[in-house]
Task: structure prediction
Amino acid sequence: MNRTYYIAGNWKMHKTRSEAAELAKALVAQLKDGKHKYLVAPTFTSLETVAAIVKGTNIRLGAQNMAAEEQGAHTGEVSVLQLKDLGVQTVILGHSERRHVYKEDDALVNKKVKLALQHGLEVILCVGETLEEREAGKAEAVCETQTVKGLLGVAAGDLERVVIAYEPVWAIGTGKTATPEDADAIHAYIRKVAGKLYGEDAAQRIIIQYGGSVKADNAVQLMAKDNIDGALVGGAALKADSFVPIAKFS
Ligand code: PEP
Result:
């Protein structure tokens, strides 16, 4: 099965609007002949600025999170309607920092997934185990639970707008990367879980990104694996010099 590689940059809580604009312009220029699917996810405050720069290019606009409710009395939250109004096409949900620092559980992540899909957005659903869970031999079980609970109630017809990102928590921002073999094994397992939920064909089509200290020098080995279909990049996404070589790997 030929799946399109999908390389996404999560800028987290970095960059002012002018810094975000500078990076977005550099990426537009340097990725215009890129062969893969691309996304940048700036902070909420830079979305409008970056939207104007990536509009009509081969770079999608993503948000890093979204409220579980459409609108209302939710101080400090950002709604799906507001994201769509800015031109956001994709939302990253269940990132490990949301799960572990801000205590979002599977039920909340699932509510957000369904709301985003209902409004036509593409979702990048992040799953991944902590170091403690990996050492206890629970990596597969944790990823299975987060995948199953994250997709609860998601119709088969909406699955083509779902991307899974396997991000082992111990590899995020730590400089430690899962070996391509270990990552591929979990990706294969997640694909099997998707197959149980949606059938083999749908499972073969689903894009599963790897995230966790992806750099230009490990991207090729990771992407060479059968079940690794792209990357969700944090630290290395903050500069064109480090993101472009990942985005243009071949
Ligand atoms: C991430 O934030 O999704 C991530 C994978 O970060 P890093 O590449 O810095 O490990």
Notes: DSSP finds eleven helices and eight strands in the chain.
